[in-house]
Amino acid sequence: MNPLNIAAIVGVVLVLAFAVVLIQPENSAISQNDDAQISSSEISDSASPGIYHDAEIAKHHSMMGSFSQTEHTISVTGTAQTNVQPDLLVIEFGVETNGDTAKSALDSNSILLSNSVNALKSMGMSDDDLSTSRFSITPLYDYYQDKDTGRHTSELIGYQVTNILQVKTDKLDSADIILDSVVSSGVNKVNSVHFTISPQSHSTLKDGLIANAIENAKSKAENALLPLNQKIIGVQSITLDDFSSPSPMMRTAFADESLFGSTPIFSSESTISTSADVVFLISEDS
């Protein structure tokens, strides 16, 4: 073989050998990097349960903290009432008439009621003092059993008209005079007579009673908390109840012309009351 060819072959072999030597460290470095990534991943995965556990502990502590900060409350109902003289007279009266036809019953009813209204106006009452409370036209039937067939049946025999008015006035001492006047004019029904508080007076008393009811609730709460070493630090809610004002009432089914002439009617005090449900926030008395 030619010496030059041999030298060339040897040179190629040496170059390849040198290249292999260079490539091995690079592969080793790549392998080391991969190992490092795997180890890092494994460490990260192995650390996840610990991190999750710490998060759960933190959440638990947060929940325990919220439980420890739960608001303590006491619920109390306060009441307040006052006795006042009524300033409004309310009378409900009317006329009830029967007739063979609805028209005849209505005509006779209108005549009698008009006479009563005119009598009230002659006493100084105005249309603003009067209002219709109830009006109805009712057919009247006769119920019987047929002798031939034995069947129960009914027969229209007429109509009944009822017209009820309401009068409101501040003339408290004229109740008996008003009743005597309307009954003498044709009224044959008096449903009610009562003395009450006007809306204006009711509104004036309302604010004061609400404040008194809340003060009463606070006083009750403080008395209840005193032996428990607790104190009021705030209010969670307040619920106000409706006002109540029971009124003296006189009722009668039908009026008789002589019923009110000799029977005076007197007004008496009315009691207005209200209540307030209050939920107070409480804590240790330091």
Description of the molecule:
The protein has 286 residues and is an alpha+beta fold. Among the domains are: 72-83 and 203-245 and 271-284, Translation Initiation Factor IF3, CATH 3.30.110.170; 88-196 and 250-260, Protein of unknown function (DUF541), domain 2 (Alpha-Beta Plaits). 43% of the residues lie in helices and 33% in strands. It is built from four helices and eight strands. It has helices at residues 3-68, 102-122, 175-184, 199-225, and strands at residues 72-84, 88-99, 130-145, 152-169, 189-196, 230-240, 249-250, 270-284. The strands form two sheets. It has a five-stranded antiparallel beta sheet. The longest helix has 66 residues, at 3-68.
Write a compact overview of the structure shown.
Helices cover 43% and strands 33% of the residues.
Secondary-structure map with pairings?
Elements: H1 3-68, E1 72-84, E2 88-99, H2 102-122, E3 130-145, E4 152-169, H3 175-184, E5 189-196, H4 199-225, E6 230-240, E7 249-250, E8 270-284
Antiparallel strand pairs: 1-8, 2-4, 2-5, 3-4, 5-7, 6-8
Helix pairs in contact: 2-3
What CATH architecture label of the domain at 88-196 and 250-260 applies? 2-Layer Sandwich
- Strand/helix succession: HEEHEEHEHEEE
Major sheet, described briefly? 5 strands, antiparallel
On the 0-100 scale, what is the average pLDDT? 77
- The number of E-state strands comes to 8
Compute the gyration radius: what is it?
A: 48 Å
Principal-axis shape equals elongated
CATH fold description of the domain at 88-196 and 250-260:
Alpha-Beta Plaits
Spatial strand arrangement across the major sheet: 3-4-2-5-7
